[in-house]
Amino acid sequence: MPINYQEIYTQIKQVGLGAKERRKKKEEAQEQAKKLLEAYSSQLDFLRSKVDSAKQADSNLRCAVPLDEELASHYPTPAPAPATLIAADGSQSIADRHSPVQFCVINVGAISLKPNSGETPFVKVESELFFGDAIEENGLTTDGGVALRRDLAERSVIEKLSKGMKGSVVSFTDGTLEIFRAKDVDSPSMYRDTVEKYTSVLSRLQGRGIISAGYIDKPSSSLVVRLLELTQITIPEEMEKLRTAPPLKYVTDRWLFGYNNKLFQLLPPGHRSAVFKIQSNAEKSYKDALELHFFYLNVGTEGHAWPVRVEIPRWVVDDKKQLDLLHAMLVEQCRMMGSKPYPYLLHRAHETAVVKNEEKYQIEQMLQQELRRNNEDVDEGSNKQFAKDLKGRTRR
Question: What element of type H or E holds 173?
């Protein structure tokens, strides 16, 4: 049976009936956010004190912390300087219990390029296969466990590729600089071990002066909005309010920093926001030069803003030349993609890394052949999978 479109249509009509009320609440919250941004933009000491008080009451508090730039400040694209760029992205094929053989593949593609040099980009691909017991031993039985391993592999391949490079080097991956423990990662020790290896890689990159960043396209977080909300509650008495009834529930940082909103646009095209520190319980892992920071960057065009979040470690924040170089390179890379701005080199890295279905099938066949060649039993695929694969079946 196909989808019951009549039932879906009825539910969609209900969604539409609530649009007017949702829009009203959203516009009221957006207007309040705009006023709070204007009122507290320069009150940096006060804002930092609010964060200090709030984190004493809630160790899991996650929000922005202002440094020395006003909240509403913005900075134009600096002039680009010569540099080597490295982008890395990862993909994976997760073990499927319905397949004849159990395996997991993590594939990472990295590309280095010297813009305007005439040199051919250098491409590196690292593919890692986990079979049988190695899947569980390495914590790769869940999506979250595989994501942790993939994030470590992405930053590690940047470290390998950057060895011996001269001059300025700018590296970036897709997603946050911080790696998170997903809810489906059952082993705290495995997570801690991965974070330790990851931060060690970051430290070695810092030692060689390699600029490191995480690029978040279409960010959904509200780190700066949460900072503004702290000004509207009494601490510690009303901390629970931030979770149950946040004052700016319908506002995101993406809206605040200029997503074509009707009230104002904070970031003109090519401009970055102030740099903020990230207040979170990850502070114990990302210490000193590795402290996590971020800024917003409008990589869009006039009339079509597209704010993205860029996460960086403190060593990049502390070096204005490195910060400006990263800013300039990201804007230049995004402009190469035209009306859908995204770093060109990250796009290329993704194309290199993605594991296609036919490649997964080929690996599966190679594994079965090798096991049979060595007289090891090979199981059959599940009947469920056989039924799904029947010619002409489209339902999943």
Answer: strand 169-174
Full DSSP string of 207-220:
HTT-EEEEEESS--
Q: In this structure, are residues 289 and 313 in contact, taking their beta carbons and an 8 Å threshold?
A: yes
> Would you say residue 293 lies in a domain?
no
For 25, phi then psi, to 5°, come to: -65, -40
The verdict on residue 300 lying in a domain is no
Let me know the angle formed at the C-alpha of 114 by 293 and 354, rounded to the nearest 5 degrees: 70
187, part of any domain: yes
CB 94 within 8 A of CB 104: yes
Residue 126: phi and psi, rounded to 5, are: -120, 125
CATH code: domain of residue 201? 3.30.420
Q: What is the pLDDT along the chain (396 residues), one digit of tens a residue?
A: 589 989 999 999 999 999 999 999 999 999 999 999 999 999 999 999 999 999 999 989 999 999 999 999 999 999 989 999 999 999 999 888 888 888 999 999 999 999 988 889 999 999 999 998 899 888 888 888 999 999 999 999 999 999 999 999 999 999 999 998 877 787 788 889 999 999 999 999 999 999 999 999 999 999 999 999 999 999 988 898 888 889 999 999 999 998 666 556 789 999 999 999 999 998 889 999 999 999 999 999 988 899 999 999 999 999 999 999 999 999 999 999 999 999 999 999 999 999 998 998 899 899 889 888 898 888 777 778 777 777 655 544
pTM: 0.93
Q: What residue numbers bound the domain in which 140 lies? A: 84-214+350-377
The residues, any chain, with a CB within 8 Å of residue 231's CB and separated by 6 or more, are: 36, 40, 46, 47, 50
**Distance, first Cα to last Cα, the chain:** 11
Which residues, 6 or more positions from 106, have their beta carbon under 8 angstroms from its beta carbon?
90, 91, 92, 127, 128, 130, 146, 149, 150, 153
For residue 28, tell me if it sits in a domain. Answer: no
- In angstroms, the CA 266 to CA 35 distance is 13
Domain count across the chain: 1
